[in-house]
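tool_call: predict_structure(chain=1)
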Amino acid sequence: MKTIIIPILTLTFIFILMSFQTGNILCNAKEMKEKASALLDPYKYDSSEMTKILYKTKESVKEVEVPLFIGEKYRFVFEMEALPKHVEVQIYNKDKTSKNRKLLFSSKESASDKKEFQFDVTRVRTVYVDYIVPQAEAGAYTGCAVFMLGYRLK
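tool_result:
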C-alpha cells in the first residue's frame, strides 16, 4: 500500500509545483506552423522545427544545424510570437566554433517588435541558425520558436 501512495503523492506534489510556475508561454505548434507556412509561398514546404527557448540568468546562444542541397533555392521562415522576450535570429555559413564564419542574415536589422522573419538563400550546403537568447530579468522562463524551411527548384 505504501509503495503506491508515496509515488502518487510525489507526482501530485510535482504537478502542483508546475502549475505555479510563472513566465512560461504555452506554445501552440499547429497555429504557429500555419502562420509560418503562409510566408513560404511560392516555396514548397520541406520541414519545420519547434525550438524550446529557455531564458537564463545570462545571455545564451542556441544553435541549430540545417543541411541543404546545392542547386535549390531555400526560404527560411521564423515564427517567434510565443517568446516572452525578443530573441535575435542569426544565420551563418559555419558553426559557432569556426573562425571564418560569415553572417548571412540577422533579425536585428528588422523591427524589434516583429514576430515573423523570412530569409532566402542559395548556393549554401549547410547553414547554422543561432538563437541569441537575452538574459531573464527574474528567474528562468521559457518560450518557443518555429522554424520552417521551404524550397524551390531552379
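agent: The chain has one domain: 23-153. Proceeding to next step.
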